[in-house]
Design a protein that fits this description.
heterodimer, A: alpha+beta, 4-stranded mixed beta sheet, globular, B: alpha/beta, 16 helices
């Protein structure tokens, strides 16, 4: 594998893409949103169970590439038990890491999610990594609309 | 008889002649395309995304450069030397394209931005004039979005109905179903000659015959077919034919709509503006003759000139020769790729050209695309603007390698190695 490819498809990412965590719909009361990338046809639904502003449970369903699946899976792991405000903060940091040149994001806060840093070297793949996060934000706003990467 | 047997027999009988016939000097043609000779990520570029757009031969680049460095002026209006030169070059391109398509008259060749605009023009101009509520338009399940959406827009506008010819698991149209769909409400058929997602070549001549039995006109989308097979619009007897310049080694933003005179003359203009009129007053405007009636505004002059150069270049090599070489290349690619375990070909029609669409087990097409890209191999990954085709085969996306006559067998070998690499990464 070339070094760039190794940066992109790290073990942790491959692991989450092959056996995604929280890969299911949530029963009972929940918020949900659908995300869609018209460029590649990736579709994802994020389910949230909020309790007093805290994400008690989170799950997702859909189809996508290794990056989008792993990103969705690791997002759910990172956000379980976090408050909605913290989740928004995660979103901002994750987004900055992938899209900003100076990359002024909080490395400590993102923790394992920094594994996606290599994606920023592949501009056409950035949307694969951020789709789940955009969808999460929509679920938090819960307007029930499908969000699109375009 | 297999290809191997055939060449063996021929070799024994007429070795010299057979050798001559089989030779297609791909290296010579590759030198005509400056872009091909480059490295990406330190690897020799292998360009296999020709169904998306083709590379340009030097003669096309030169034609556009010459136009801007020596002939640039507006056409059909200046009374000066340069305007005449530009007009001549523009008109010559139209003649080349008329001959290329076998059209009866140069007036039947209309310049548009691409196949997409050609279809939109017909849907809007022909459609709004000749179709009404309750009428039906037939397309197929393997159309590109550009041959679906313009008809949907029209149908929604006038209350007509869109009917779709289904396909089988190999990606071939079900002609029996087509026959059943043709009925007294059918007013138009719009069909691709070659599928961009599957590579299938459709029996358009026969389908046109079937539609004409009840007087239904047919548009043939030649965006994919025109670069790969010789087209004769009079032989096909199609009513309309569209293709895009950039997929046939010409510039982007230019394409052609061929239409039979009898229709074009009865169709209203698509856009209003300069060049499409013969006289304007605030009370009434008289439209220009065809094709100018459909060419409002200053056209894409360098595009037309570049396209003319591309068509001339292709004609000199010969579409027949190109098709024969590409068929050999496709057979080689199909054989190589089908032998990779875990690879599933999407689109295995008997009649096919230049396209190998595939999926690799659970590996998503986008990931395949990235792994191949890192090895210098350019393919397309996605739904190919043919989402209904993806739904039909129940895949979210495919990886697609599409060939041109400047590709070599060794490009296919590189692709094969690249695919094995993808398996390695995602094992």
């Amino acid at each position: 594998m070339t070094s760039d490819l190794k940066e992109l498809y790290q073990e942790l990412i491959l692991d989450h893409s092959k056996s995604p965590r929280n890969f299911h719909a949530l029963k009972g009361t929940h918020r949900k949103a659908e995300g869609y990338n018209p460029l590649c046809g990736d579709r994802i639904t994020v389910y949230l169970q909020l309790d007093g502003g805290v994400i008690k449970d989170i799950g997702f369903e859909g189809s996508g590439c290794a990056i989008s699946k792993a990103s969705s899976s690791m997002m759910t792991v990172s956000l379980k038990g976090k408050t909605a405000a913290e989740a928004r903060d995660f979103f901002e940091n994750f987004h900055s890491m992938l899209t900003e040149r100076d990359k002024s994001f909080d490395k400590e806060k993102l923790g394992k999610l920094t594994v996606f840093q290599g994606v920023s070297e592949f501009p056409v793949r950035v949307k694969c990594a951020t789709l789940a996060w955009h969808t999460l934000r929509a679920a938090l706003e819960s307007d029930g609309q499908t969000v699109s990467t375009e | 008889m297999s290809r191997g047997e055939g060449s063996l027999v021929a070799m024994k009988k007429k070795p010299v002649r057979e050798k001559k016939k089989a030779s297609f000097d791909v290296e010579k043609y590759r030198r005509d395309f400056p872009l091909l000779n480059q490295k990406v990520y330190g690897k020799q570029l292998v360009y296999l995304d020709n169904a998306a757009t083709t590379q340009k031969p030097q003669v096309v680049i030169d034609a556009v450069t010459r136009y801007y460095s020596a002939e640039n002026a507006n056409i059909h209006r200046g009374i000066h030397y340069l305007s005449q030169k530009a007009t001549d070059a523009y008109d010559e391109s139209r003649d080349k394209i008329q001959r290329f398509l076998g059209a009866r008259n140069w007036r039947e060749i209309i310049f548009v931005r691409g196949a997409t605009e050609g279809i939109n023009l017909v849907a809007q101009s022909y459609g709004r004039k000749f179709l009404k509520e309750g009428d039906e338009v037939i397309i197929s399940a393997m159309e590109h979005h550009s041959n679906i959406v313009p008809w949907q827009i029209l149908c929604e506008e006038i209350g007509a109905r869109l009917r779709v010819i289904p396909i089988n698991d190999r990606g071939e149209l079900l002609l029996g179903e087509y026959e059943k769909l043709l009925n007294k409400r059918t007013r138009f058929v719009s069909i691709t000659q070659m599928s961009n997602a599957l590579g299938t070549i459709n029996p358009v001549k026969r389908m046109i015959e079937m539609a004409h039995r009840t007087g239904v006109p047919v548009l043939v989308d030649g965006a994919q077919s025109a670069p790969h097979l010789a087209v004769d619009v009079q032989d096909l007897d199609c009513d309309f034919f569209v293709f895009s310049g950039h997929k046939i080694y010409g510039p982007t933003g230019i394409g052609v709509l061929y239409g039979k005179t009898e229709w074009l003359e009865r169709m209203p203009p698509y856009q209003g503006g300069g060049d499409m009129i013969s006289r304007v007053s605030f009370e009434k405007t008289l439209y220009n003759k065809i094709p100018f009636k459909f060419e409002a505004g200053t056209p894409h002059i360098e595009g037309v000139i570049g396209l003319g150069a591309a068509i001339y270049y292709l004609t000199k090599i010969g579409l027949g020769k190109i098709a024969a070489y590409e068929a050999e290349l496709l057979a080689y690619a199909t054989e190589k790729l089908s032998s990779i375990s875990g690879l599933r070909l999407i689109g295995t029609a008997k009649e096919k050209a230049s396209i190998v669409s595939f999926v690799l087990g659970e590996i998503h097409a986008h990931d395949i695309g990235t792994v191949l890209d890192q090895q210098g191999i350019a393919i397309r990954a996605g739904h190919h603007c043919a989402m209904p085709v993806m739904d039909r085969f129940q895949v979210p996306a495919t990886a697609r390698a599409s060939l041109a006559f400047y590709n070599r067998k060794e490009d296919i070998d590189t692709l094969e190695r690249g695919i094995n690499k993808a398996f390695e990464v995602f094992k």
